[in-house]
Amino acid sequence: MNQQSLLNTAEKYIPGACLGMLRLPEDIRMVMVRGEGSKLYDAEDREYIDYMLGSGPLLLGHAHPEIVEAVKQQAASGSTFFALSEPAVQLAETLVTAVPCGEAVRYQTTGSAATYFSLRIARAATGRNKVLKFEGGWHGSHDMGQLSAAPSDPPDFPQAAPDCAGISPGVSQEVLVAPFNDPQQAAAIIDAHQSELAAVIVEPLQRVLKPEPGFLESLREVTSKAGIILIFDEIVTGFRIAWGGAQERYGVLPDLACYGKAMSGGYPLSAIVGRRDLLDLADPIQRQQGDSYCFLSGTLTGNPIASAAGVAALKVLKGPGVFDRFHAIGAHLSTGITEVADRLGIALQVLGEGPVLQVLFTDRQQLRDHRDMLHADKKKAVQFGYELIRRGVYCSPGGKLYLSLAHSDQDLDRTIEIVEDALKALG
């Protein structure tokens, strides 16, 4: 079936003819058929340099041979058991060894599930119900995740705003919101509600905003004093900005940390890693003994295929020079885009850390939080993304650019050339 036929069929059966939030204009819609290294190919065999990377997890690029081989071997031995498997045990040991706060692991299947269940653990441990998050932070598709993640007209702090329809008003009442990178205001909200707060959850690198010195440290101090569980959402930062993730990069240890598909080469797997006493609440023996028990399970939780992929992926990521390379390619692309924009007289900034970047069209000098980012020209960023796709660079229009070890210097140089053409096309 050719690409247009596939798209017509998709329109008939899949709302939006897309699988998530990205619905492209008619002239650049495509159906992807294969990925290889840093490249994607659509049903018309058109090649794209890929900066979507499956929405981030493909740190080693598409179809990395060691991951493919691990998956083949495990698939031949069985795809799922709903029981312990050797790869799941091996991966758990690697995670606890790698993650600075790690003492134990409980698996889930998606990043959304990991963040959702980490909050359940915090409630079970503290006996409190409320959660504090940071405006603009993304914690998945569950109801709590879809509060104040991308408000265009944000309410006063600490009120939460729903980002989509269908969010229960009761959930909104259990979530408090603070500004990122404002330790004083966050501490004031936490102090005022400490008897109600079970957890503070934060992306230590919030989207592409770096934490300012002292911000994460302040969160650690105030939550420790109040007996509140501090959760790092490391779905993006884990095994990407350092082997030990944001905890290693920024030197602050949470009580729990959430990891996603980047740890398993893009296969469906996530994990909550952290304090043993907290994760022990999910041990079924708790129920048998009549103790407090926190249900964390799922049909494909810790499935052997994804776990085998994870063992293979982390083995490669632990290799020499990997994270130096990640930061080098991020700097290469960021510097190249900035230089092109300067030459063309276009006001933009490239924010991020290592191999995760975002282009924002703004002349505002300091971007510290979500409200600062609202001053950027979102429509222009989306159009810029469309122009990149038209020229063979696949990305999330207006969103982040993810890089992988598969991206070569030649890929980056070609991308910078395409960026120049795309910026000129914006007029």
Description:
With 427 residues, this protein is an alpha/beta fold. It has 2 domains: 3-63 and 321-426, Aspartate Aminotransferase, domain 1; 65-317, Aspartate Aminotransferase, domain 2 (3-Layer(aba) Sandwich). 39% of the residues lie in helices and 15% in strands. The strands form 3 sheets. The chain has a 7-stranded mixed sheet, with helices on both faces. It has a 4-stranded mixed sheet with strand order 1-2-3-13. A 3-stranded antiparallel sheet has the order 11-12-14, covered by helices on one side.
What kind of sheet is the major sheet?
7 strands, mixed
The quaternary organization reads as single chain
- Which strands sit side by side, in order, in the main sheet? 4-10-9-8-7-5-6
Structural class: alpha/beta
- Poorly predicted regions are none
Number of strands: 14
- Relevant CATH superfamily of the largest domain: Type I PLP-dependent aspartate aminotransferase-like (Major domain)
The helix/strand series, from N terminus to C terminus, equals: HEEEHHEHEHEHEHEHEEHHHHEEHHEEH
Strand content: 5-15%
CATH architecture verdict of the largest domain: 3-Layer(aba) Sandwich
CATH class value of the largest domain = Alpha Beta
What's the average pLDDT?
96
